[in-house]
Every structure is written in C-alpha cells, then in structure tokens.
Amino acid sequence: MTIAAWTFTLVALSFALYIGIAIWSRASSTSEFYVAGKGVHPVANGMATAADWMSAASFISMAGIISFLGYDGSVYLMGWTGGYVLLALLLAPYLRKFGAYTVPDFVGDRYYSQSARRVAVLCAIFVSLTYVAGQMRGVGIVFSRFLEVPVDLGVAIGMGIVFFYAVLGGMKGITYTQVAQYCVLIFAYTVPAVFLSLMITGNPIPQLGFGGADAETGTYLLDRLNGLHDDLGFAPYTSGTKSTLDVFAITLALMVGTAGLPHVIIRFYTVPRVRDARVSAGWALVFIALLYTAAPAVAVFARTNLIDTVSNTPYEEMPAWFSNWETTGLIAFDDANGDGVVQYVGPAAVDGAGDPIMNELTIDRDIMVLANPEISGLPNWVIGLVAAGGLAAALSTAAGLLLVMSTAISHDLLKRGYRPDITEKGELVAARVSAAAAVLVAGYLGINPPGFVAEVVAFAFGLAASSFFPVIILGVFSKRMNREGAIAGMTVGILFTALYIIYFKFVNPAANVADNWWLGISPEGIGALGMAINFAVALAVSRFTPAPPSGIGELVESIRVPRGAGEAHEIGA
Amino acid sequence: MAEPRAREYWRRNIRYVLILLSIWFAVSYGAGILFAGPLDSMRVPGTGFPVGFWFAQQGSIYVFVALIFVYVFLMNRLDREFGVDEVDAEEDDAR
C-alpha cells in the first residue's frame, strides 16, 4: 500500500472510533456536559488529561524544536511536565474539593465578587481561543501534506469531527474520546521512536538509546553529534546558548502556566473524590512522560540523521522526501556557491583556509517529526500512523479548549452571571449552542490564521501564569486574602505580562534581543516575573484592605480537608 | 474535625508539600539549569549523557512523576490518621 492509502485508512479508522465513542457517551445533564458527572476513573482521567494537554505543538513541533535547540530545548521538557507537580500538590485536590464546574466559579465564589469572576472568564476565553486556532491549523497542515487535500478543507473536516462529539457529548464525550486519542497518539509517537532507536543505536528503548553508543562507529551518539556540530560550526548540542537566567525564567513561566491553564484544571473536576484528583495528576504525568522522555531521543536521532543525509551531499542525489517537503516550502535550498552540493552549516563554520562558509539549507522545525519516518526509510504504515497521531493530538486539545469556552459562556456568564434563573434544560441548550459557536470561531481562525499564532501561544502561558495561578494558590493557602488583593494582583500581573509581550512581539519586534530585555528575561519567560508581581501586589493590597467576610474562612477550611467532597455543590448560590 | 486537629493536619500537609517542592526545585532548576554546566563534566555512569543535560531532558521528568506518587501515598496516610479520608457515600452516611 502507498503512503497515502495507509494514511487514509488509519485516519478514517481513528475518526470512526471517535464518532462511535461520541454516540455511546452522550451527555444528558449539565453535570455530565461540564464535568462528565464527576464519575471518571482517575487512570482514565489521567489519560484524558494527557491527550487534552499534549497538543499538535507537543506531537509535531516539540521534538523538532529540541532537535534544533539542543540543551536549550530542555525548557519545554521541564516546563511542560513540572507544572503537574504544582497541580497535584497545590491546586487539583483543593479545586476538586471546592467542587464547582469551572475556574471562574472558584475565583468568583472564593473572592465573593462578580468582577473577579468576569476577569477570570475573559482570561479563560482569551487563553483558550488563541490555543485552539493553532490546533485547527495543525489539523489542516497534516491533512494537506499526507492526504493532499487543501488546508481549508482539512480544517473543515477537523471541525466537523470535533463539532460532533463536543456538542453532543460535552465533557463526557470529550473525556472518552480523549482516552482513545491518547492511545492513538502515544502508539504513533512510540513506534517510529523505537524503530529509529533500534536502527541507530541497537537499543529498542529510545530513552536509553540516545545515551548509548552509535551502532556504526561505536562512539557515544551524543559525542558524535557534538562532533558533527563542531565540524559544521553549530553550538554544541548538549550545552545551550541561552543565558541561565532566561532558561530559568522560561521554565518557570511554562510550569506555572501549565498549572494555571483552565482546560487542564477542569479535568480534575471530573473525578469522584479528592484523593482521585491527586493520583489522577500522577497518572496524567506518567502518560505525558512517555512522550516527553521519548521526544529528546527523537530529537537527537532526527538531528543526526538529517546531518548525515544532507550535509555535503550533491543536490542531485537528495532522496524523494526532500523534494516532497520542498514543494510545501518547508525545506528550501539555495546554492549560494553554485557547486551543486548542500552546505548545511552553522554561524561559526569556516573552510580549510579559515574563510566563512555560507549556509545553503533552511529547514522548518515543524517537519522533523512528520518527515522523520521518511528520512529514516521506515515502512509506509508508520508514516500513515504518524499522521493519525498528529490529528489525535490536535483534535483532543481542541475539544478540551472548546469546552472551556462553552462553559465560560453558558455557566459563568449566564447561569452564575446574567441569567441565574435559567433552567437546567435551558443551560444545557446554551452550553451546546456556545460549544457550536466556539467550533465555528476556531475553524474560522484555523482557515484565516492571524499571522502570530506561534507568538500568541507564549502569550497564553504568560497570561495563565500571571493571572490564575497566584489567585488560586492564595485562595487556598491564605485565609486573609481578600477580594481587593486578588483583583489588584490579577490585574497588575496580567497587564505587566501582556504589555511586555505586546511591546516586544508586536509594537517593536526589532528590539526583541537579549540586550533590551528587562533583567535579560525574554518575552517567553516574562510570565514568571508577572506571577511574582501578582503575588506581591495581592499580598500587599490585602494587608491594607478589609478582611474577607467570615463565611470565607469556613469555605477555605472546608476546601483544605478531603472528607465530604461528594456531589457537585453550588457554594453561595 | 476539632480546631487544633485541623491545624495539625494542615501543618503536616504544608510540611510534605515544602519538602517535595524542594526536591522538585533541586532536580529541575538546580541540577538541570543552575548547576548544569559544572555537572556536565561528569557522565551518567555507563552512558554518553552529561549529567546536567540528562537531568534537564530525562531525570527531572522521572523525579516529577515519583514526587506526585509519594505525595499521594503520604496524604492518603495522613487522611486516614486524621479520620478525614473519603469513604463511599453509603458508609459516610452510616458514620
């Protein structure tokens, strides 16, 4: 079978599976629509959280980015896993005990304030909307490359699938499709990684293989790669070029941002008990770690393979995958010295006489995972599997984000805001309608992407880190924290982070170099500072304003103790 | 739960959290970032991994997973000790 036939078969099979699950798990009440009736087994919730969290960026882009950044790529590995420790120890159990449906629910009730609730709703919608546009775009790219349908049609097909199970099943449908999607995506990621590890190092476990010896030369693979980098004028792979402080700040912003993302947090509302919320975060990280520990291995294999294949090879002898990706514009070769040979070199490259060598090859980072099986000559079915896996990763994250947007509108704005008298049935209809509207908006953004999707993702993490995280932590760990402190902290934290990012990314991108950064912290890492400012402002303001009403102290006391989580309840309603 | 018991329960919880988060900080920000340079002069025995690089791209993630499960174990034990562990709804009614 050809690559296209395999891809079509595997993608069609996986889609049929998702639709089947959606029909089986329709939601019949708001509790089922918002939090799957709080009846999800912690291990299943762990899998669903892993699929929810690992997006097209994790599946398609991350190994590629690490492959080009080497050690500096570690910020993503640590940043996007370490946040789960914070979730399990500081957030998930208490939010589950609180037992509402959304993050703005907690903010609004703990800080006895509709303004705080609305600020939280705005943040939740903005963070989710920026994220979901990128997911839809990822769906379109996979379709266009592997099935040769136009990107727009690919986005439309993806929208159709998500529409079906998100609108029909709500959180219940999403949860069980995410479990299936996790299985598809982890299988699709692991199979090529194991193949590559066996081919290059002879060790079937990629996590061990990339620390082992190269099967051909017998030297350690990482030493060989550092040697290749040295010969070609790139910085050494295993030590970075970013400043230590910036690496520190970016890692912290990503960790805290992860713990503050509403679509991740609400997953922990779906389990039956507080102890399930704790252990569920553990399972989520186990399932995420399976991919995140394989990614740096894939990055090393891909980097070595790429250099071995293209470096100083005549352009005429390039394999078929090279021209395939050239037509998509994601690989570009410009024969600067006219010798017909590909010179792929770094900034420090010099020839025998000490003169600099021009780099002639530009490679988009995003193609490393998608092209890897072809570069290594793996069987056609593996290539089709990678396409199905990429789609699973993008669709599962999109669905989780859409649910956050729909609950923000039907629950936070209508039921708890402008229309408290809405009936259960009316709220469920409103939830379905807003989910449908969110799918359409996401699809529109996927077809007409704003030019800055990649930048905006950094924005989403920064905002989550500098807004939700401190407010929730203080709400649980400080009884004295009051409405005034929380609103002031959120507002100052968000504004500081947003303005810093907007200045360097949109107003004056030319100034976006390390010399101009405040304290040497890049816009990617500024959320860490925004979080610190939020904490400081909130604590200071709360000291000079009235203590919260007496009922709040009891609420915090009850959140801190597991017994009595039981059914969903509406505190203060 | 009586007031002093509740305070003691919370104090123990905070202590567990602080200890586990120190380890969280030490493996990622410590070994993986701040001291990665000096640690890279050593190898993880029997492999080609420089130690700092290994912590940044592998080790810290394994430790994160372990930390969560240790916390789960400690808290389940603490919940039982203070009689605030969750039981099934029917049993809860019987108490």
List the helices and strands and how they pair.
The complex is a heterodimer of chains A (573) and B (95).
Chain A: H1 3-24, H2 30-35, H3 42-53, H4 56-69, H5 74-98, H6 103-110, H7 114-146, H8 151-201, H9 206-209, H10 221-232, H11 244-260, H12 262-265, H13 274-310, H14 320-327, E1 331-333, E2 361-363, H15 367-375, H16 380-418, H17 424-447, H18 453-466, H19 468-477, H20 483-507, H21 526-543, H22 550-560
Antiparallel strand pairs in A: 1-2
Helix pairs in contact in A: 1-8, 1-16, 3-8, 3-13, 3-16, 4-13, 4-15, 4-16, 5-11, 5-13, 5-22, 6-7, 6-19, 7-8, 7-16, 7-17, 7-18, 8-13, 8-16, 8-17, 10-13, 11-18, 11-21, 13-15, 15-16, 16-17, 18-20, 18-21, 19-21, 20-21
Chain B: H1 3-34, H2 36-39, H3 51-81, H4 89-94
Helix pairs in contact in B: 1-3
Sheet with most strands of chain A: 2 strands, antiparallel
String of helices and strands of chain A: HHHHHHHHHHHHHHEEHHHHHHHH
Widest sheet, order of strands of chain A: 1-2
Mean pLDDT of chain A: 83
Largest sheet of chain B: none
Q: Which range best describes the helical content of chain B: under 10%, 10-25%, 25-40%, 40-55%, 55-70% or over 70%?
A: over 70%
Overall spatial form of chain A:
globular
The count of strands of chain A amounts to 2
SS content category of chain B: mainly alpha
Roughly what percent helix of chain A? over 70%
Catalogue the unreliable spans of chain B: 89-95
Give the amount of beta strand of chain B, in percent: under 5%
Rg from Cα of chain B: 19 Å
Separate helix tally of chain A: 22
- Cα(first) to Cα(last) distance of chain A is 60 Å
